[in-house]
């Protein structure tokens, strides 16, 4: 197995924060996964492409970065079945599917990250969640040293949530994601910005439009380091919502199936006046307040500090707690050296 020591993780996290790990391991097959000792695993953090990870200290834990690659396609009369290994890049995978005539993931184009990370937080955008197309997930269990299969129902998918993010966090690795795409394609084009394509709508056109929408609002981490949405959109009770709506009648909201209401965290943050605000080299993005951008900081704690300021301002104004979508590694800590 490929192993590196004293390895810089700056290029392995989309906030571009410098952090050094004593050791990083790149298991590229099931047999290499089985070589990982229990002791090593217990001290490690599993990293995909680092698009949802914030290193809060200059010293990072031991890193396991799975490197399994490969895509397999089979078909039945009504469906395509696609199995993709965890280290495949998500956007390249989406492009592969669409160019192969396999449709469904077009709304999820350009989401940064890897295939293996997609089910963990059930990535979603423009009316589609990855769980809509997941049939099974193969997961390597560190304690049992074997592969376990989870059906879609067993994965306990929710909004930016799954079994892998909760109970199974840190206990194993998603090795493969198995998708099922009906051959009878149903466009999801009701989201504002996608709903003007009429009958001429095609998967490629939706994908192109999604790319255009994302590029117009969301900063490219290669040029402006960020992790996409920093917080989850909060879900509140109908009763709390009704009270808020009397005061804020233009507030965007999304009705949930169980009667609860999801609010737009970006809108809440913008109302506090923090859109575009900068502190210690990090800032609230000027076009999308849900995104925190690293302009010039070398310290993850600067991002934590800004995120806590955002949380306290939103709490003060609306009484709502924003929960980070980004994972903090090594927090709390004493601080970064300047
Ligand atoms: N809004 C503002 N000000 C802002 C940002 C947003 O008023 O600064 C308003 C918008 O005008 C709109 C509403 O808030 O009425 C929602 O905004 P948007 O459509 O941009 O979506 P979002 O709720 O901010 C979510 C996902 C994104 C995903 C988009 C599109 C979460 C946490 N984020 O963002 O996912 O791309 O919907 O479906 O659910 C990500 O997770 O990293 C991510 C980018």
Through-space gap between termini: 36 Å
What proportion of the residues is helical, as a percent range?
Answer: 10-25%
- Cofactors and ligands: uridine-diphosphate-2(N-acetylglucosaminyl) butyric acid
Total tally of structural domains? 3
What's the CATH architecture name of the largest domain? 2-Layer Sandwich
Q: What portion of the residues fall into strands of 2 or more residues?
A: 25-35%
Mean pLDDT: 96
Q: Provide a count of the helices.
A: 7
Q: Assign an overall shape.
A: globular
CATH topology of the largest domain: the name is Uridine Diphospho-n-acetylenolpyruvylglucosamine Reductase, domain 3
Whole-number radius of gyration? Answer: 20 Å
Q: H/E element string?
A: EEHHEEEEEEHEEEEEHEEHEEHEEEHE
The total beta strand count reads: 21
Class computed from helices, strands and strand pairing: alpha+beta
Provide the CATH top-level class of the largest domain: Alpha Beta
Walk me through the structure.
- The chain has 338 residues and is an alpha+beta fold.
- Helices cover 21% and strands 27% of the residues.
- The chain folds into 3 domains: 2-64, Uridine Diphospho-n-acetylenolpyruvylglucosamine Reductase, domain 2, CATH 3.30.43; 71-206, Uridine Diphospho-n-acetylenolpyruvylglucosamine Reductase, domain 3; 220-329, Uridine Diphospho-n-acetylenolpyruvylglucosamine Reductase, domain 1.
- The structure holds uridine-diphosphate-2(N-acetylglucosaminyl) butyric acid.
- Uridine-diphosphate-2(N-acetylglucosaminyl) butyric acid binds at residues 125-126, 217-218, 228-229, 232-233, 252, 264, 266-267, 270, 275, 288-290, 325.
């Amino acid at each position: 197995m490929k192993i590196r020591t004293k390895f810089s993780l700056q290029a392995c996290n989309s906030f571009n924060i410098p952090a050094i790990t004593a050791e990083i391991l790149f298991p590229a097959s099931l047999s290499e996964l089985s070589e990982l000792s229990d002791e090593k695993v217990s001290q490690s953090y599993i990293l995909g492409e680092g698009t949802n990870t914030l290193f809060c200290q200059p010293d990072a834990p031991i890193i396991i970065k799975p490197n399994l690659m490969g895509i397999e396609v089979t078909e039945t009369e009504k469906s395509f079945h696609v199995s993709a290994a965890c280290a495949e890049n998500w956007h390249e995978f989406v492009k592969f599917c669409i160019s192969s005539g396999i449709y469904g993931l077009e709304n999820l184009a350009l989401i940064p990250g890897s295939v293996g990370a997609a089910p963990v937080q059930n990535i979603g955008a423009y009316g589609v969640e990855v769980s809509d197309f997941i049939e099974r997930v193969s997961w390597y269990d560190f304690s049992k040293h074997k592969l376990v299969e989870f059906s879609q129902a067993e994965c306990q998918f929710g909004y930016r949530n799954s079994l892998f993010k909760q109970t199974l966090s840190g206990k194993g690795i998603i090795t493969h994601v198995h998708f099922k795409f009906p051959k009878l394609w149903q466009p999801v084009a009701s989201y504002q910005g996608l709903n003007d394509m009429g009958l001429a709508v095609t998967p490629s056109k939706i994908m192109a439009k999604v790319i255009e929408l994302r590029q117009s609002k969301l900063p490219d981490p290669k040029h402006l380091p960020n992790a996409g949405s920093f917080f989850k959109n909060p879900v509140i009770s109908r009763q709390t919502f009704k009270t808020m709506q009397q005061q804020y009648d233009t507030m965007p909201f999304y009705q949930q199936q169980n009667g609860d209401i999801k609010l737009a965290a970006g809108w809440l943050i913008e109302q506090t006046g923090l859109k575009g605000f900068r502190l210690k080299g990090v800032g609230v993005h000027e076009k999308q307040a849900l995104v925190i951008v690293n302009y010039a900081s070398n310290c993850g704690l600067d991002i934590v500090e800004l995120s806590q300021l955002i949380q306290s301002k939103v709490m003060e104004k609306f009484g709502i707690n924003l929960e980070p979508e980004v994972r903090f590694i090594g927090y709390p800590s004493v601080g970064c050296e300047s």
